[in-house]
Amino acid sequence: MTTWRDVLDRRLQHHREQQLERQLIAFETLDATRIRMAGTNRPLVNFSSNDYLGLRSHPKLISAAKITTDFPVTGAGAARLIGGNHPLHEQLESELATFFQRDAAMLFSTGYVANLSVLQALCRRGDVIVQDRLCHASLIDGGRLADGKLLRYRHRDIEHCQTLLEQTAKLRVLATDGVFSMDGDLAPVTALAKLARTLDALFMVDDAHGIGVLGETGSGLLEHAGLSQTEVPLLLGTFGKAFGLAGAFVTGSQVLIDYLRNFARGWIYSTATPLPLVIAQRAALQLVQAEPERRWQLQHNIAYFKQLAEQRLLPLLASDTAIQPLLVGSSAAALQLQAKLQSQGFYVAAIRPPTVPPGTSRLRITLSSEHQQSDIERLVAALAVDIVPA
């Protein structure tokens, strides 16, 4: 007789055989760009962090978190609709709306929950959700769990997107990443916004990896592209990347935010964000605006890395963002390269299916404003030895 344990063991063994098993590694943070594996003494230069501006080690952000000792409680104690709402929640939402030049905003526990909640709230039977094929897992899962029909167009293919959007539906929702998290390239948001308005589709952008680092003020890809709330009614962002913290938010028109507060189950039935985190989130939002030099330094580091990588003929995917994927191919090869780099003092995570399509395993190199020029030079030199041998 086959037991449930047998079934799970077989599935896990197959995963191992495909070089796809995931395992946790405990790290200790030493500073903005250096970590150490727990139980070891050797520091590693971290090129796998989403802390693009180095804010998680910023003294002002650490100080803001310490202020929370003035509060008599830690957690919010309840969902916001039944007693967990606090003036600080509303103040942060107001500041987010102002920063992104939108009517209103609402906080979520994570970006994953935000995407699931928004798509579940918007899309019912008879509705259509159209997404880029390389959207983040949270958008894909949100589309699958919603009652609407999920359709996915070829990556950045406007004509294919239009064909799918033209299907008959009560409500059409067009969703995309702003900066694609595994490829680092940008969604063609200007063309998509025009298409959405033409076909009366609600256009939403998850700009988790663009907010804080793109645009003159750091408000992201939409600012970079000159698009307003009119062109892109719904914008999702996260505090877990450039802001150096955790949590997420949605911004948009007042009617959209009011609607989500009444129908977004992931928000309605979740405990409110703890006040210590809200205080730190407010501080991070202020720092992004007050220290633009961090964005300038990040852009310099990106350009310098790309220049050196091009000279060494490294097979990077086309990206001008902090996400610089180096295509390897097989899962085994990606893991081997990760291990070699680790032995030389670098941590760069191998990304494998199902996060990326089969045959496209890669090293997802991410840059920070805090990386030193010497860090970048040494990484490129180490990569060149194994990727493009002399």
Q: What shape does the CA trace take? A: globular
Sequence of strands across the biggest β-sheet: 4-10-9-8-7-5-6
Order of helices and strands: HEEEHHEHEHEHEHEHEEHHHHEHEEEH
Provide the helix percentage: 40-55%
Strand content: 15-25%
Annotation field: number of helices = 14
Distance between the ends: 57 Å
Count all strands and give the number: 14
Overall mean confidence score, pLDDT:
94
- Main sheet characteristics: 7 strands, mixed
Radius of gyration: 22 Å
- SSE class: alpha/beta
Q: What are the segments in which pLDDT stays under 50 over at least 5 consecutive residues?
A: none
Q: Mind explaining what this structure looks like?
A:
By secondary structure, the protein is α/β, with parallel strands linked by helices. 40% of the residues lie in helices and 16% in strands. The strands form 3 sheets. The chain has a 7-stranded mixed β-sheet with strand order 4-10-9-8-7-5-6, with helices on both faces. A 4-stranded mixed β-sheet has the order 1-2-3-12. It has a 3-stranded antiparallel β-sheet with strand order 11-14-13. The radius of gyration is 22 Å and the shape is globular.
